[in-house]
Amino acid sequence: MSTKIRLGVLGGGGDSLIGVLHRIASAMFDQFQIVGGVFNPIWKENIGFAEKIGLPTDRIYKDFDTLINEELELPEDQRMQVVSILTPNFLHFPMAKKLLENGFNVICEKPMTTSYEEAKILKKTLKKAKTIFAVTYTYTGYPMIRQMREMIKKGVIGKVQKIDAQYYQGWINPIIHDEKQRAATWRLNPEKSGISCCIGDIGTHAFDMIEYLSGLKVDMVLADLNYLYKDNKMDVDGTVLIRVSENVKGVIRTSQIATGEENNFTVQIYGEKAGLKWAQENPNYLYLLEDGKPINILKPGHTYNSDISLEGTKLPPGHPEGIFDSMGNIYKGIAKAIRNEPYDKGEFPTIIDGARGMNFIECAVESHQKGNVWVKLDN
Ligand SMILES: NC(=O)c1ccc[n+]([C@@H]2O[C@H](COP(=O)([O-])OP(=O)(O)OC[C@H]3O[C@@H](n4cnc5c(N)ncnc54)[C@H](O)[C@@H]3O)[C@@H](O)[C@H]2O)c1
What we know:
With 379 residues, this protein is α/β, with parallel strands linked by helices.
């Protein structure tokens, strides 16, 4: 009998963006096996996709409620052990809550819910369930991000004094200027997406990354968002000033109308001794900046890297690894947690990080709506 962890998948069908990333990531370290799920609410698409990727169809269910009911009928040693939620945002909360209430481990896409209130309810539900809950802030799995975190933890840059994160995309530009197209895009529909598009979709990645890398908690935010059109209820661009403390400040710059940009996510953290810079579109290079010295470039797979960074490198140095590998590393950490093996806290983001993200989104939108004022996060 296979010893792989039995994984169910919700969403992530053939028409989706993120499904392939999770399927490949879950298979990467031979830890998980997809045993079933609901890929699509349309049955023909759902079953057709399962057949296309060669999955047995006996555990492809017509909808989420049927999945829960039928999986609970199975003996525990056959039942799905963990379920990945890869649907549009509004389904994350009801699906995650019911999964937890029925004893499943959960892997949930970001943003974790559509409101901070829902996130707090999920935290309470998880406390009772005592299962594993991971939130896939994908970029935290990159080896050089993990190395950056370790270097900051070890004091290589000294006391942090300036934080700068940017996430620029341009994909909404061809959509936003056409009324029909913007009405047909779920990320621009508050009922499906939550109260924010740009800050919710990519600002949360930047926010999570800052806290992941620095180990610091953002205390206050001041946001200036752009909606472009009066009838558009969702931000498509935003600049957020962040304040960790009186002497640690920074900025999160996000846009989905930065025409022509792809996934231009960069993060820079500067301390009193040095600075560290990383860019998602060139993820195997980590730049160390020091006064009066040439720039140092660190790369994955070399013995000078920390254990957690090396844990996520599969090939000798110089073989580029990318976003699939980053998500694969997150799944690797989740597998350890499910198997009750020791793991580093930095190996996967949890419900705490997911809830922080929701708190951030709501504070940023509130700040903008109140006329660009400082709003305090829960700390
Ligand atoms: N971590 C990341 O870097 C990252 C990147 C992209 C998307 N995401 C997140 O992943 C989620 C999905 O995004 P996407 O871009 O793949 O969306 P998408 O619209 O491309 O795909 C959504 C999928 O969900 C399925 N679906 C819809 N309703 C369903 C239901 N009731 N039951 C089962 N399946 C259903 C659709 O058929 C489709 O396959 C979002 O929450 C998004 O924020 C995360």
